[in-house]
Structures are given as structure tokens and as C-alpha cells.
Amino acid sequence: xxxxxxxxxxxxxxxxxxxxxxxxxxxxxxxxxxxxxxxxxxxxxxxxxxxxxxxxxxxxxxxxxxxxxxxxxxxxxxxxxxxxxxxxxxxxxxxxxxxxxxxxxxxxxxxxxxxxxxxxxxxxxxxxxxxxxxxxxxxxxxxxxxxxxxxxxxxxxxxxxxxxxxxxxxxxxxxxxxxxxxxxxxxxxxxxxxxxxxxxxxxxxxxxxxxxxxxxxxxxxxxxxxxxxxxxxxxxxxxxxxxxxxxxxxxxxxxxxxxxxxxxxxxxxxxxxxxxxxxxxxxxxxxxxxxxxxxxxxxxxxxxxxxxxxxxxxxxxxxxxxxxxxxxxxxx
Amino acid sequence: xxxxxxxxxxxxxxxxxxxxxxxxxxxxxxxxxxxxxxxxxxxxxxxxxxxxxxxxxxxxxxxxxxxxxxxxxxxxxxxxxxxxxxxxxxxxxxxxxxxxxxxxxxxxxxxxxxxxxxxxxxxxxxxxxxxxxxxxxxxxxxxxxxxxxxxxxxxxxxxxxxxxxxxxxxxxxxxxxxxxxxxxxxxxxxxxxxxxxxxxxxxxxxxxxxxxxxxxxxxxxxxxxxxxxxxxxxxxxxxxxxxxxxxxxxxxxxxxxxxxxxxxxxxxxxxxxxxxxxxxxxxxxxxxxxxxxxxxxxxxxxxxxxxxxxxxxxxxxxxxxxxxxxxxxxxxxxxxxxxxxxxxxxxxxxxxxxxxxxxxxxxxxxxxxxxxxxxxxxxxxxxxxxxxxxxxxxxxxxxxxxxxxxxxxxxxxxxxxxxxxxxxxxxxxxxxxxxxxxxxxxxxxxxxxxxxxxxxxxxxxxxxxxxxxxxxxxxxxxxxxxxxxxxxxxxxxxxxxxxxxxxxxxxxxxxxxxxxxxxxxxxxxxxxxx
Amino acid sequence: xxxxxxxxxxxxxxxxxxxxxxxxxxxxxxxxxxxxxxxxxxxxxxxxxxxxxxxxxxxxxxxxxxxxxxxxxxxxxxxxxxxxxxxxxxxxxxxxxxxxxxxxxxxxxxxxxxxxxxxxxxxxxxxxxxxxxxxxxxxxxxxxxxxxxxxxxxxxxxxxxxxxxxxxxxxxxxxxxxxxxxxxxxxxxxxxxxxxxxxxxxxxxxxxxxxxxxxxxxxxxxxxxxxxxxxxxxxxxxxxxxxxxxxxxxxxxxxxxxxxxxxxxxxxxxxxxxxxxxxxxxxxxxxxxxxxxxxxxxxxxxxxxxxxxxxxxxxxxxxxxxxxxxxxxxxxxxxxxxxxxxxx
Lengths: 332, 530, 344
Hints:
The structure holds three protein chains of three kinds. Chain A is 77% helix and 2% strand. By secondary structure, chain A is mostly helical. In chain A, the strands form two sheets. In chain A, strands 1-4 form a two-stranded antiparallel ribbon. A two-stranded antiparallel ribbon of chain A has the order 2-3. In chain A, α5 (53-78) packs parallel to α10. Residues 1-22 of chain A have low confidence and may be disordered. In chain B, the strands form five sheets. A six-stranded mixed beta sheet of chain B has the order 6-9-10-3-11-12, sandwiched between helices. A six-stranded mixed beta sheet of chain B has the order 18-20-21-15-22-23, with helices on both faces. In chain B, strands 2-1-4-5 form a four-stranded antiparallel beta sheet, covered by helices on one side. The radius of gyration of chain B is 24 Å and the shape is globular. Chain C has two domains: 8-155 and 297-324, Response regulator (Rossmann fold, 3-Layer(aba) Sandwich); 157-296, Response regulator (Rossmann fold), CATH 3.40.50.2300. Chain C is built from 13 helices and twelve strands. Residues 1-50 of chain C have low confidence and may be disordered. The chains are: A mainly alpha, B alpha/beta, C alpha/beta. The interface between A and C is large, with 36 and 41 residues.
């Protein structure tokens, strides 16, 4: 219900407005906004340091890699597909970038391009299998999650580290006082919102997700656009991997990005993107990403013991989803 | 029994301001077959759905076996003893006959399904409806008529006292229809109250004890069958004897549309059709379940494909559009041979299809009206890869005005529109100023569309043919629609064109009898087609 | 073998005492369950015939395939096995206890003559071990001990944590005057993590009671280590120490401190971890404030993986081995280079 009404309205709003919301209206369309604000308030009151600039910066950097992958994944989900392999693709991206920068002593540009190419390759395999051969995206990308992880560990059994100061720029530098990963994430968010609002393909993404048969009968190429989204998702995951590798100056094939696919998917779904396809907005995804980032950070600030933290995270997730779902009905 | 088994009183139901049912009364005693007649959209299916619990009525009561209900849920309806056999049967193909009959009310022993007992009882029920299948047959492998009997047996197993048959012979061959008629007579003698929905007056004459005609949601006529003739019934169904669209359509096009009485105009069209430049030509087109067929539609001509469900109308349209692959023959637009293999090919050649199943194949319910109407137009309008938002809005506004979209709100999700306006959106996809096609194929153009909007859609389509010379080929199972819209009509039966009605011959009565005549000899081949 | 900048004699003595204690405890446990000293051979029918067996195959079941140690261990063990003309089989458990149980059951069914297994859940592996022994197979428990086993390869994870905690406490007393703030990156999800965590925290808080413990956060990978440390740093920008249950997590803490503007050579900061992972060892070697790692030598483990089953097969008494954990620090360049070489 919520998602159904979110989609058509946001779709017609030009990108920048969709991204920035639109005052009261966007609150009604994105009840998660209220949930998020409440959560921030509670954390600030209980910790006293949640809103410190240093902490917000930390949240932003953490959320950045999540957002970079969540935006293209959201588009993919809107078009009725799914990619569960992003965790492993992220590892591959970090490893390839680290290998180029650390072991081959290539320039950071080469390292990042290498990572992106690897991500595109993984995405293309997913896309061919799902869009052109019509296999179930769930199964294909679940299989790829394991296969790509295996490949990564086979190629890079040992941790890579010491990538040099040039590569550290990707994760560590600041552009106008803002950390590079955050800048990249903002660019991705804006690009995603503009794509949905302003390009014909953006409309096609929705149409394919809502009713693939009707889209086909309308003469839309129902394979090419989702295929491209698979590739872009792969590229984004690899970019996120390269950023993480740069921030940590190290990358481990076995553990890098493990479980990341579910975190991203959670952010996407929390943001109001329907798993059935056809509805969602980039602004919603941004809220989902921030929700997860703030939750994790706030619980750490509160020094909640491990298992309580897990319980709190799970509960907050369900509560957030429930409030976002029922909230608008109660207020109407 | 003194109490009638089914008594409906003052039943009303509106959808978004449109009165689908307006104070309808219907009384069916046990042991009687009551025919329910009326055009598509007259309120028959709404009535049935209220009875089956799919819609809650706004007012009125439904009394079954002496117990009165203001509204029914599907479960309550079944419990009350109402069984509805819809046109599209609700049997599960992958289960056996016995499993279907006991679906949802399985007999269990020690927590497992008591298969043998079920099969024994099912065999008895099948015998009661004189079905020739075995309880162990898979339903998906049975012919249509047997599947229908399975569904009736299922109704009997739930000790239904009111049986509603919704156009039961629409998808049946002549022989199967005859067999079904015998079953209906049996069931009548077994004391069931039967509501029989049909278009075919011959069936009414043969089976019905009483008849009710609905028109525009009201009871237009009620009588015992012996009390009226076929032509009287046709008059009641059609309404006033004068042509329907004359009142609503004032422009020149509407006059030439002529319905039942438009003999002069009709002849004129028939004559001009010959001289028209051919726009769409299908030569020896065939595919699975139909053909070979020869179809020609001239520039600005509107041709109907009239036939029963399963006659192959839809297949022909879908093949012309490239949704199905033709196994032979050629399709030409003008002089060019196109024979599309995919919808995209057809669209590139200037052929568009508005499918019958709007919800599944046409509409994007959660997307806005503008997106629905302009989907294939967004890319052609775009500049430098970016959408031309202003141009899109302009095209949409012009389109919504042309088709009379109401409300003309571009951002409203398509699901919020009425059926007629949804159809206008799907239609608008192909007839807006930025994207117009040479050949427009329409499958059941006004299915699920209310009466008022229906006339508007006819006007839009007629104007399109008139002003832009678009060749229109539409399939319909509604004689009234064919008469209202077509210049010329091809009768389709068992996958072939078996006749053609032109000009003055094109009347509802002629269509109804053409289908009857065509149906009998073709009975054996149409079985598998549905 | 161990040259650390931290008080070697004390830790070594403790190490010996502790490992003695562990061995004694193991002995007691065994005695308690399966009769006197020679009970091992009576309870184990394979033991009698084991005397003259020659092994051709050893199965190494190390479940944490995502850890770099897995690759290193497989490589070094295979090489070590080859010297004895033994082929080494491995499982791929992907850190999943159910997969591990399935894989072990398969090996027992196929009668792999010697199985070296690191049980993810010790209690759940007992039955499999018993079946292996009943089938006449050699069962070597890795990283702990089971009731039913031929021998074991032990590490004192507690000891590793203790070494790290003591070294950090000593540093805090010397460099910070016993005052400051510390954050622990812990693990409470698996047995070895809990042992390491306990050793680390207990030793530190006992020896440096004046230092405030400001956080105990679950983190075993660098990502989590980074984001949790960053959150802690937002609240406590003056944090002095981060100790990690793994080097990977501590490395994330190391990066978080640098990101908040701490120079890599800051004199008032201490980061330490456990494992001897390559990135951490490099950071230690470079003289950064990543000052210590409680490291296992992969070669020692690999040798044990081959030697212990061979010793059982040869019928030797007391075939079990305790693999030493040592703390490496800035000065241990040779040791670091040796470990890095083993890791490559």
C-alpha cells in the first residue's frame, strides 16, 4: 500500500526534488523519515554524542559503501530482479583493486578500473543468466554468491595489504571537507534519482517491474535494461569493495563483504522498494541506508552487549518496517 | 417446495459512481432454470459476483434457502449452497478429478487423505452429471466439456442448492453443448435452482423456464419463456428499437457507424470498403489452433472478428502482432511484408495491439496514468537521452482530451481509474499525437468497461479510422459491440473465417444466428482450442 | 623461539604453568571418563592395533575456510605430509557446523584412516569422534580436546589473549602512568573467541586497573572493527588502546584511529591483536602504534597436523602436542619475517 503510492508520485517528481524530499509531502510518502528522526533523537538523548560531527562523519562513511550498492540494487529490484551476489562481488572488487595497487604497483586509476571491470564481468554473467536465459535471479545470484567467493579465495588465498598512499586517496581523501566515499555515494544517489525520473529507461524499469508482459507487448526491450542494471550493480559492488580496501588498506578474500548482500537488501526493502518489483524511490533507499547506519552506530555508542545488540537490531528492523507500513494508515 | 430457493431483492452495487446494479430482483424456485440475459456490462457478472461473495452489495438482500443475507463472503456463499461455474473454470489442472472435487474439503483418515473413499464418492457424483471421465484422470488432460462437468460435480459434492452457470457453452463444441443441456435438465429435475447466463437465445428457448433481461444494471424484462418470442427478447436486450449511438455520438463518424437500424449507412460503408486501399493484409495466415485465414482491412476501415470463446479470434490477433509465431502465411502492412516475430517487430511495422486481458497484459496498475499512456512514447520524445517532461505532459493532455479521460489526472495511478478509463489509457498508448500506428488491433475492446465509457471508446476508435485512416481490426464476443463499431464483420469459428457480414446484413440477430450455424458443423475441431 | 620486548621470563613461566595446567586438566578429563592411565588403549580398540600402522592419508578438517590461515595451513600441511609420503585431504566447511558434521560423517564412512578436526562445536562432534574411533580410525582433536579421541593438538587461546592483555597493560602502566581508555574488540560467538576474549580482558584489567574500559564490542573482521572503533572514537576521541580478538578486527581499529587523525607512529596509542595476520605483522614491523600480535606459527601447526596422527599410528606414548603462541612486537623483526614467509 505504502509502496504503491510512493512509486507513482515520486516518479513524476524531477530528480533533485525526489532526492531532497519535499517537506511534509515526503514525510507522508516516506514514513521511515519519522522513524529515523525518532531514532536519532533517542540516540542523541541517551548517548549525548550521537550528533557530534565526528560521529556523523563516521556514520556517513559507513553508510556510503552501503548506499553505493543499494541504489543500483534498488533499481534492479524495482525492475523485478534481485542480486544476492553483491557481497562476493564486493570482495572481488577490493581484491582486484588491491592486487593492482599493492602487488603490481599500478596507479590507483588502473586499480579502480580493474575492480570495476571485474564487477562488470560478474554482473554480466548474472544478467545473461537471468535476463537472457530467463533463469531465476534468486537462484542464479545465490549460486554466484558462493562461486565468486570461492574464485576470490582461490585467486587470493592470502590477505592483501599496503596499497600505497595513492590508492588510499579513494577512501581517505576529503573533497571540500567531505570524505571521498561520501561524495561518491551522493553522486550515485543523485544519478540514481535522475535516472529514474528523467530518462526513458527509468520509466521502463518501473514498467518492466510492474507488468513484464504488458511492457513486452508495448514494445519495450524487457531484457536490455535489467541486464544493464545487473552490470551496474556488479560495478557498484566492486567500487564499494575498492573503497573498503582503500579505507582499510587491506582486504581478505574470505571475509570481505561477507553478509553484505543481506545488509544491502535490507536497506533497499526498508526504503520501501517492493521485492515484487515496480515500486520504490531512491530517497526511500537513502532513508533505509541511514536507518541501518544510525542503528548500528547508536547501539555501539550505547555499549549494548553483543547478543542484546543483535536482538535490538533485529527488533528495530522489524519495528522500523512495521512503522513505515502502518504509520501512514494511522495518521490518515 | 413453496419457498423459492433463491430470492434476490433490490440488489444495488456501484463502482466509483457508476451503478452496475440498480435494485435488481431475481427469484428462482427449486427445480427451475432461470435464464439471465443482457449485454456485456449490463450487470450480469456483477450480480453473479455479489451472489458468490466477491463483491459486497451496497443495498438489497440475497435469500438462499429461506435465509436472508445482506452480504456474503465467498465462504458463506458456498456454505449457503451457492455454486458458481464461471466461464474460466476454477479447476486445478495438475490435480485429479477426485482431488479437484474434494479440494478444500478433503476426506481424511488418520490425518491423511482418504483417497479411495474420495474416488468412490467422486465416481458417484460423476455418474450423476453423466461425465465420462474417471476420478483418477488429471483434469488438465480432459476436454473442456468434461472439465465443466467436474466443476458441476464439485458443486454437487458441496450440496449446492443454487447453481449459477456463467455462459457455460461459450467454450464448448456443439456436441458438448448438447450434452451439457441434458445435464442441466437432469439437475433441474433433481431440484436445483439454476441461474443460466447466456448470449444464445436458442439455449434460452431450449432450457429456460423463466427469463430475466438486465440492461444498464436494471431488470429490463422478466417473463416465462413461453410468453415471448426470440425477436421480442432481442428487442429487450438491445433496448430501444432505434439505433443506440445516435444519441451520444454527434459527429459525422458516428452516423456511419450505424447499429441495428443503420441500413443505408451500412451499405455505403460496404461499398467504399472495396475501393479502400488495403492497409493490413493477412494471406493464408496460420498458427497453432487456427488458420489458414485471409483477412484484409482497408485504410480507415474497422473490421470485426466475431466468434465464441476459443474460436481463435484472440490467436489471430496475437499472431498478427507477433505475440505468437505464425506457422505459415504472410502479413503485409500496405505493400510491405512484415510477418512479425516479436511485438517489437509489429510495432516497428506500425501494428499495435490492445489486449483483452487488461490487467495481465495491458495495464501497469501502480504506475501513473501518464506513464501508462505514454510508455512507448517516452523514448521517441526524449532528447539527448533525457525525457522531455514538458512534451510528455502536452501529449498526455491532448490524448486525455481526445479520449475523454476522466479524471484527466496524469499522476493518478492507473489502478484508481474505472475500467473504461483504464482502457482509454491503454488505447492512448497507440493513438497519441507522438505515436500513432497504421494498424490497430483490439481484443475485446470494451471488456469490463461500463456502458457510457463504451460509447466513448467506440467514438475514439471510429474517429481514429476516419481522421487518420488507421486500419482497425477488433475481436469481440459481443454482438452489440460488433454492430456498433464494425464496418464489416468476419465470423470466426474453429480457427477459420466462416462468414462475412457487411452493411445491412450486419445485425445482432444475424451475428447470433451466424455463430449458431457455424458452431454445429465445426463442433469437433474446436475442442482443444480453448 | 620467543624474543619479545615484553617481560619474557614472566610470560614464559606463566605460559608453561598454564599449558601444564591445561594438559593436566585434559588428563583428568580423560581419566575421569575412561578409566586409568592405559584406559586410552582399552577404551579405544584401534589403539591396540595402532602400533604398527602406516598412514597413507590424513584428513584435515579446518572449518574456517574464509580465514587466510586456512589456505596457509593447507599448503604447509600438504608439504609436511608429503615428506612422510602421506597425502592430505581437506574439507570445505565454510564455517558452517552442519556442513562440518556432514563432511566428518562422510570421512568416517569412507574410513579415512586419520582425521584431524577442529570442531566448531565441541559437544556436537563427540558422537562423530566416537564413531571414528569405533571404526578403528585415528581421531585427533584440534584446538581442544574431546572425550573420544586418539590425541589432540592444543593451543592455549586463553594464553594468547593473556599475553596480549599483559603486554598492553605493561605498556599502559609505563607510557600512560596507568591511566587512559581502552576498547576491546571481542568475540563471543565461538569457543576460541570466548577464550581469547577472556584471556585478553582479564589479564589487562588485572594488570592495569586504572585504565577505563570504554567498550567491549563484537568484531572479528576489519570492516566491523573499523566501524565499531569509529563509533567508540566519536564518543571517546582520547581512546588510548584497542585490543582485538583477531588481528583483522584490530587492524580495523588501527585504521579508525588513523582516520580520526592519529599519526601512525603516535606514542600514546596502542593497538594489538591476535593471529599473526600479515597486514598486522607488517604494521608492527613498520614501527606503527600497532604494537603487538599474539601469533601462532603456521608451520608449527602444520607439522603438528601431520606429526600427531603419525605418532598415534606409530603407537607412541603421549602423542598430543601443544602449539605455542608467542607475542610478537616491534623488535621481533626476524620472527616477523619468518612468520610472513610462512604466510606467503
